[in-house]
Design brief:
about 170 residues; two-stranded antiparallel sheet; 2 domains; 6 strands; four-stranded antiparallel beta sheet
Amino acid sequence: MGMDIYGINATTEKGSYFRNNIWWWRPLADYILENHGDIAVNCEHWHSNDGAGLDEDLSLALAKRLEEDLATGKVQKYQDAYNYERSLIPREDCDLCGATGIRTDKVGLEMDMPNKELPPEIASLTGRTHGTCNACLGVGTRESWSLSYPFDIENVREFTEFLKGCGGFEIC
């Protein structure tokens, strides 16, 4: 799923369209909501593609604030803190193999996962030479899904450029 953000009255090419998949959009929208809620509150649904958005004046005001955040290093500090917090998230038990490292459900059996040879680096971790899972690679744990949501200063920069030329926007 993605978030397609269309400029209502674009004055620049970059202002006509901005897209993020859901993984990239949520952290960007959260940053805006957390740091510029006084403007963001005017867009009812940042996490939905139901057509909500901001008018031209509010889009320009948000662009100005984001430019200030970029210039002062606020976005970089946020990114650093965000990534640090993500680094603390522990691995989770794999739900496809029941944390055993060997997928034995219908799909696992159809793909012969219990009999597949493990790569040497995984075998040394698990103490066995055979049996794998396509979700955890045979280890029994996997990264948390929350690690699928990256935040990046460049994404903020690109959205800021969109805002400056969009003439207002709708999230579709």
